[in-house]
Amino acid sequence: MRQAFCDGLLRQQSREDFVFLTGDLGYRALEPLQEVMGARFINAGVAEQNMISVAAGLARQGLRPWVYSIAPFVFARPFEQIRNDICLHRLPVVLVGNGGGYGYGVMGSTHHALEDYGVLLTLSDMEVFIPSFDNDLTDLIPQLFDSDRPSYLRLGLGEQPSSCSPPGFSPWRKLVAGTAGTLIVVGPLAGSVWGACLNLPEAECPNLWCLSQLPLPVFPDELRNDLAYSQRLVVAEEHVAQGSAGHAIAMKLLQSQIIPPNFRHVTALGYPSGRYGSQKFHRQECGLDAASLIAGFHGGCPI
Fold it and tell me: Of 26, 144, 262, 279, which has the fewest CB atoms closer than 10 Å, so is most exposed?
């Protein structure tokens, strides 16, 4: 998604209030933005805490700063500054974390962001966006410029099927209609599952929904109906269970008195084998790959 992200920001570069800060990252992706923005493109170096405080100061002066780094470096290392300098003052700073979940693969746990949005959503006024597809950024970037709240944008690998055109960005989107149950997938993980659903018979295919915004938006009527009639519900996300979208969905279901007979929450489990590998390897270890998720709806995996 980095290319789509850069393209989207290039369309905003004429805004005089736009300032972009990077923690010495973005090589071979953000150079076009650097070229057109000149002094408004700031390489803060490997000094993330300072970068966040500078961004807060810029926002305090009426500017619209965007802060970019690898996801764990933009939420975990400077967490105190995000809390104290940005959120306690409700400043409209956009934090951009690239490679959410296991996105940085073999670079290991220090580069993985498995608890990012759960941690950030404990802070006041924070909103989180987890785009599912590259073209989501066309709609999201102008929306983030208009927000008056702190925001976290989690970028991943867009995996939409080549034969499909996803609907425009929305917090909830239904991608596939089926009769085998309901599968809610958070963020770009939805693309690979969508592809796996395309050739399934309707009786083995779930209703596939993707969720791309937190705190949890109101359930649309169609999703509420799907949940009310589904005998199976699976929620899948490349994030640990604590602080997850799945926990928020379970709470909402209880409050709404919608109780699917079979519920399963598939999450990032860390490193079950004790080994590091590609993002695909880690997803498979956790049962987050498309084959494992789909198998649960036609007898291949117990719910």
Answer: 262
Q: Show the domains of the chain with their CATH numbers.
A: 2-155 (3.40.50.970), 172-295 (3.40.50.920)
Please give the Cα distance from 203 to 84 (Å, whole number): 51
CA distance 255 to 7: 41
Give residue 303's pLDDT band: very low, low, confident or very high (50, 70, 90): very low
Q: Determine the Cα–Cα distance for residues 130 and 132; give it in Å rounded to an integer.
A: 6
Nearest-angstrom CA–CA distance, 175 and 181: 14
Confidence of residue 298 (pLDDT cuts 50, 70, 90): low
Cβ contact 46:93 at 8 Å: no
pLDDT of residue 301: 45
CA–CA dist 155, 25 (Å, integer): 14
Q: What single DSSP character describes residue 168?
A: P
The count of residues in the chain is: 303
Angle at which helix 2-10 crosses helix 136-146, to 10 degrees, equals: 50
Question: In angstroms, how far is the first alpha carbon of the chain from the final one?
Answer: 32
Instruction: List Cβ<8 Å contacts ≥24 apart for 83-87.
Output: 83/123, 85/52, 85/53, 85/56, 85/57, 86/52, 86/55, 86/56, 86/59, 86/150, 87/123, 87/124, 87/125, 87/126, 87/150
E strand or H helix at 138: helix 136-146
Q: Which amino acid is at 142?
A: P
CA gap 280, 277 in Å, rounded: 8
Give pLDDT tens digits for 242-257.
999 999 999 999 998 9
The answer to whether the beta carbons of residues 159 and 188 sit under 8 Å apart is yes
Other Cβ atoms less than 10 A from the Cβ of 168: the count is: 11
